[in-house]
Amino acid sequence: MDDEASAHAVPPPIRRQRVVEVFRNRFGTLFNDEVLSPSGKEGRYLRWQWSGSGVVIVPVGPEGFAFVPTYRYSIGGVSLEFPRGGCEADEDPAVAAARELREETGFDCVPSALRPLGVIHADTGLIESAVHVFAAEVGPTGSAGARPVAEPEAMESVAEPVWASRTEVVKWLQSGTVTCGVTLAALALAIADGSGTGSGPPM
After folding, report:
1. Parent domain of 67
2. What pLDDT, on a 0 to 100 scale, did the predictor assign at position 143?
3. Where is the Nudix hydrolase domain (predicted)?
4. Distances in whole angstroms, Cα of residue 143 to Cα of each of 95, 138, 199
């Protein structure tokens, strides 16, 4: 937290009295902890903990930003998103980001070429785990003009990346075309970083 933010009033914490695990699988663990509110009232609080840190990659290039049309089962429809996923056991976030980028878009980018943009929390009211944000300089085509081929995981459904200039992205935001919270947060960090100027003028 920066100096300006830390100068604001700080609300008292909700204190965890007892950890209560209610569900676990290979992706993460759901807790329904016993907590104590600032007023002294006892209650419960749901908390999801991913098995590893998350990563989201902002693909940028001459055409602006690349978004991946992704079918999301939870909303029953297609969502325009930046590539994202999770770190495997003991996997460095940059390595995970390069892997997820390749799997979901076909774009190759070595981990050392990724530019860290910051860390976000996808839903501070529920999800404990942090998400590392990276920018990746990529092109609309692969080597020798070949179109990159994505190799998503078995339970993923993605289509060919869609490129949008910053000007087009503004229109998407105004029309509600992009609603994924992780993508919107990563986009904000990328804009603050000056990424994805593309063919459009600065915002």
Report:
1. 54-193
2. 44
3. 50-186
4. 21, 11, 22
